[in-house]
Fold LytTR family two component transcriptional regulator.
Amino acid sequence: MAENLNCMVIDDEPLALSLLSDYISKMPNLTLVRAVSNPLAAISYLKIEEIDLIFLDMQMPELNGIDFLNLLQKKCMVIVTTAYSEYALDGYKYQVIDYLLKPITMARFIVAIEKAVERSKMNKALADATLSSGTINHIFIKTENRIIRIDLSDIYYFEGARDYVVIHTETETILTLQSMKSIQQSLPADQFIRVHKSYIIAFDKIRFIERGRISIKEKLIPVSETYKDNFFKRIGRDGI
């Protein structure tokens, strides 16, 4: 594991901070930049420091882990560390790399780090490919057991469905626990647009628009009031 990652630990328990700091110090490819007990302080530090990987406790008095993830603006990888197993599903909604249940062993810690290193390599490879080509022609999506590549030209639309997002392509449907917000941020704005809280569509797959609904692949997709003005402005129309 040659990839070097700058780390921050956020946990209100002194013993947990000490243990994770010790684990990090034993990994040659990890550098501990900050270990903080206050998540609000962590948000301030993240504005001035380059952090690749955050170890985040979920149950903290000032700000719980889910609220922290909602406030997180930087694209940092996150490993959840908590004594409460009920946070596992919530964590995966926010694209955490792994979920570690306390007490955390060194062996389990290493497994999580290997996942983070692989994700970091994948992200850098994607960024390099984008820079070299000048355009984005595919995205990587995390499914339950793997990360898969999907060509943008194959995607018709994304549909939010409770805890999942369903990706409708030319040949199949793919389920992911990634959020609509994170997916939208990864898509080129000249090719995709959000038209509803539950739908992101591909411009080139639109068949027709009628009575505020978009026809794509035999599906009529509603355009909500929130996104209507931006959508019709983008297609050069006042509305239908």
